Amino acid sequence: TARRWALDICELRKPWIKSLYKTDKLEPLGEAREILKFARAQARKQAANLEHPLVCIDVIEEGIVSGPRAGLWKEANAFQSLLFSDTCKSLLHVFFSQRATSKVPGATDLGLMPRKITKVAILGGGLMGSGIATAMILSNYPVLLKEVNEKFLNAGIDRIKANLQSRVRKGKMTEERYEKALSLVTGALGYEKFKEVDLVIEAVIENVKLKQQIFADLEKYCPSHCILATNTSTIDLNLIGEKTKSQDRIVGAHFFSPAHVMPLLEIVRTQHTSAQVVVDLLDVGKRIKKTPIVVGNCTGFAVNRMFFPYTQSALLFVDYGMDVYKIDRACTKFGMPMG
Q1: Residue ranges per domain, the chain?
Q2: Which member of 52, 93, 225, 254 is catalytic?
């Protein structure tokens, strides 16, 4: 077809319309300006500190108003000036940093292959547990969700349903896909079915004694190759695994709320965690479309280690009598999406 079309153009049987000059998909000027106005408002709302989305819209407008060649000139000039901006340097840094997270000395450089994870168990169906379960089933991992009683279990499954329904409403998921994802979740009140699980993620409240008890139970009921992960945000992993002999397979898998939306996953390794376990979790992280970063077992790991002093300094200013709204505005103006 393409060959025939080219010959038809060559022999003047078909008009040769260069795509640069096509206007059949363009709205009338007034309408186009309204659309661009709406796009600008959206860009300002979503990325208040970024200049380049607005520059892109200006370039498009130039092409519509003054024709395609003028649009191309404006694009070339705008690109050149943006290329040397701080934002450009920072975005390049972020791009390469995100890719560098998958290279971990002492883990990914040992030639280890990730093991196949076929079934995941999650302890706790609260906000975090249900969010992690949602992230897993969206990437086709069968999930065993354990709770302490029927009421909590049903509430956890309802949260998963609500997470998925929100995707259906936004058009990100079909009804058929919704049913298929939901069918991957099995509820449990005991540990009987844990003998066939390859990865457990504990997401219960931040209580050391409770977590220690859970990990002692997991060691008893899970197969010897099973990875024992905790979603704790601040508790020392060595303390959590203190009452077990499985410290080489205990690891942190710290998700951020809402877990099925936020892209970051902190993989916390202790001095005992085996390199194989780290490699396995990096693989799972990628499969569930997260950006996994491997961090050490220290107070607050990476994110909260930065967040605590950030919050403390804000609170210090409040103690000194500074207007809270002023502090909030300084944070958002700096670029934090939440004040």
Answers
A1: 2-98, 120-298, 309-334
A2: 254
